[in-house]
Design a protein that fits this description.
The protein has 18 helices and 26 strands. The protein is α+β, with helices and mostly antiparallel strands. The strands form five sheets. It has a seven-stranded mixed beta sheet with strand order 6-2-1-7-8-10-9. The chain has a six-stranded antiparallel beta sheet with strand order 17-16-21-20-19-18, sandwiched between helices. The protein starts with a helix and ends with a strand.
């Protein structure tokens, strides 16, 4: 310890050896796919344009993971065509690794993890060195800085924290500081991404599980807890001295001062463990005595002990931890390191009820006599070791026996549960058979209903009759295609109130009222109506009856009667003309009836006497044939006035006789209208002008 305090370069080298900077671009491809498809997509989609997204990558090492996240954000921004500012804070305690990250230049091996398209878009190939350099557009997103995120204040208002494969190297005590700090740094709803072998442990009050497989967590908007950090906590951490160099600020007793002095003077290498034999603190280089093991790191000193040390270390720790002995020493242990053996003195001292110091001290061989004593010592410790192992085995056997009894009890419960499940299975199987039978019957019924429905649809389509079915609330239940010409219906109107649909019917606003009357009184109703295209329909409203003779709405049918209406109108017009013919025949004045296009359709005897043409000749002529050429335009204007007035005042005009004479006449023109008030002909009463 004193040597490291006095030789800062050696301390830096030791510190560098302890750092682990292992990372790759898009390390764990499946995890990055989930991050891209869920988290990055969600944040970029929901954020408003011109806003900022803040990401923190603590323990970024040489920067590959931070650059990977930046590339994914750039791709997503381009895909969504959004203008978003991305700011990624990449921090690490290793200044040399940060130098590599800032340079952004990597070997050609990154092509194994980065796609060809991404290499072309976001990297520049350096042909002379066969390396790739990240492009400025991505580099500008990142800020690299040296930071110890355990003791330095964190960033704030962060949307994503990616701390993957870093926490596995920390003890539980350190992790208790880290997770509240991450919770403090994140925005509400922010995301925490860990490595696949890491988890939030007991901090479920701070984070929700977002993706179990890839260890993605969602910040809870919980109230401040006892573990939540504050600004003063971070300031205190910055002020406190490093635990690896100095002890706590608290006042030490004389005994503790003496013990610290002895440690500094004699203990070049030592570790502190708890009652579970887990390493809590390391001083000096322990590589000669302890080695890392494969698998999950739990810091168990027995599992890490090198050959020649494990047996004695187990016995000694058993005495101190389980027997209550204050201190145990084992001298001249032959420890194998890199193929050679080193003599080591092992000392174990109880610090308090839960902490124990293990000291390693190299030594040199003694004389032959000393060797004999050492062999006796070894024999004694072997006996103690086997005795300790025997006690542990006895304890283990008792625990196994208890576990076996519990397992038997559980097995009996499982057997009982299994029998119940078997019974339930048989019941379910019987029920399933019944359901299968019912299902088959339902399938047959469905097929029949499907066939009936098809038959009904074809029947309705074949009739060509416009039909609308409504329920008791006059909501549309079904309609035939021809009905769309009368009421503006589409398929999505089924279920809508009929009163909400616009119709093409003229001068008829009581359809809904009439339908309701039919439903209430069960008396059918027929109404003639004209559409906007001058076609006529007979609407018939009937109550809708079910097979059980229950009223369940109404059926509205529309039959086209345009031709019938035309024939009826012609009949009426002919009757009127016959009546008019009698009047015309016996009148003293010349009476001429012309159609709206000018054809002469009636010519009385007085007209024959005045103009000279017989009736047979006249009805083959047009009224324009007896009007002088210079008056034809004037006469047309006079006829147009009849559209606004059914009779005109008597006026003076001229006509041409059969002999070619121009006659001056007094004319009175009257429009003939039908029962619908439409003009269908013009009658003119004419008399010679006499001065």
């Amino acid at each position: 310890v004193i040597y490291l305090q006095n030789n800062k370069d050696e301390a830096k080298l030791l510190f560098k050896d302890m750092l682990i900077s292992v990372t790759n671009f898009f390390r764990d491809t499946q995890a990055f796919e989930v991050i891209n498809d869920t988290i990055i997509k969600k944040i970029c989609t929901n954020i408003a344009p011109h806003q900022s997204i803040r990401v923190w990558v603590p323990g970024c090492a040489t920067g590959e993971e931070a650059y990977s996240i930046a590339i994914l954000f750039q791709e997503k921004i381009e895909e969504l065509k959004k203008n978003i500012h991305i700011q990624i804070f990449a921090t690490d305690i290793d200044s040399q690794a940060l130098m590599v990250a800032r340079a952004g230049t990597y070997s050609a091996n990154i092509a194994l993890n980065v796609s060809k398209e991404q290499l072309e878009r976001f990297f520049t190939l350096n042909h002379d060195t066969n390396t790739y350099t990240i492009k400025k557009s991505i580099r500008d997103m990142l800020i690299f800085s040296e930071q110890n995120y355990i003791k330095d204040p964190p960033f704030s208002k962060i949307d994503i924290i990616s701390c993957r494969n870093s926490l596995i190297y920390m003890t539980g005590e350190l992790q208790k500081k880290v997770f509240p700090m991450f919770h403090y740094a994140l925005n509400p709803g922010g995301f925490l991404i860990l490595g696949t072998s890491e988890s939030i442990g007991d901090f479920t009050n701070l984070f929700d599980e977002y993706d179990r497989k890839f260890k993605i967590y969602h910040k809870k908007d919980s109230e401040k807890t006892e573990t939540s950090p504050s600004i003063s906590d971070f300031l205190d951490l910055m002020k406190k001295p490093d635990i690896s160099v100095q002890m706590s600020d608290k006042k030490l007793t004389v005994k503790e001062i003496a013990e610290q002095s002895l440690i500094k003077q004699y203990a070049t290498v030592f570790v502190v463990v708890n009652e579970k034999k887990e390493i809590l603190y390391v001083s000096g280089r322990t590589g000669k005595y302890l080695e890392s093991v494969q698998g999950d790191f739990n810091g168990n000193i027995i599992k890490m002990a090198r050959e020649g040390l494990e047996q004695k270390l187990t016995t000694a720790l058993h005495k101190v931890i389980n027997k209550g002995i204050e201190s145990v020493s084992c001298n001249k242990l032959r420890v194998k390191t890199n193929g050679d053996f080193t003599l080591v003195n092992l000392k174990i001292k109880k610090l308090n009820a839960s902490l124990f110091m293990v000291v390693f001290e190299d030594t040199v061989p003694d004389s032959v006599a000393g060797a004999d004593d050492n062999e006796k010592n070894d024999f004694t410790y072997d006996k103690d070791y086997y005795k300790a192992m025997q006690e542990e085995m006895t304890t283990s056997n008792e625990e196994l026996k208890s576990s076996n009894e519990e397992m038997q009890s559980v097995n009996e419960e499982l057997q009982s549960t299994n029998e119940e499940l078997e019974t339930s299975k048989e019941e379910m199987q019987s029920l399933n058979e019944e359901l299968s039978t019912v299902n088959n019957e339902m399938q047959v019924k469905m097929a029949e209903l499907f066939q009936i429905n098809n038959d009904m649809n074809n029947l309705m389509a074949a009739t060509g009759v416009a039909t609308i079915y409504v329920d008791l609330e006059i909501h549309i239940r079904k309609f035939t295609p021809p009905a769309t010409k009368i009421v503006n219906l589409i398929k999505t109107d089924i279920g809508r109130p009929l009163k909400h649909i616009v119709t093409n019917i003229l001068k008829y606003n009581t359809m809904i009222k009439d339908i309701q009357t039919v439903i209430d009184t069960l008396i059918s109703k027929e109404i003639e109506m004209e559409l906007q295209n001058n076609t006529w329909f007979l609407m018939r409203i009937l109550p809708y009856r079910t097979t059980s003779n229950m009223i369940d709405g109404a059926v509205i049918t529309f039959f086209e009667i345009t031709e019938i209406k035309k024939a009826h109108q012609i009949l009426i017009n002919n009757e009127m003309l016959q009546q008019l013919a009698i009047v015309v025949r016996d009148a003293y004045d010349a009476i001429i009836v012309q159609s709206m296009t000018g054809e002469i359709i009636e010519w009385n005897p007085s007209a024959q006497r005045m103009y000279g043409w017989s009736k047979e000749e006249a009805i083959t002529m047009n009224i324009s044939d007896i009007i002088p050429e210079d008056l034809k335009k004037t006469e047309l204007k006079i006829i147009e006035k009849l559209a606004h007035s059914t009779i005109l005042e008597t006026y003076r005009s001229k006509r041409i006789s059969k002999k070619g004479e121009v006659l001056e006449v007094w004319l009175t023109s009257t429009a003939l209208v039908d029962e619908n008030n439409k003009i269908y002909a013009i009658t003119t009463t004419e008399r010679l002008f006499k001065e």
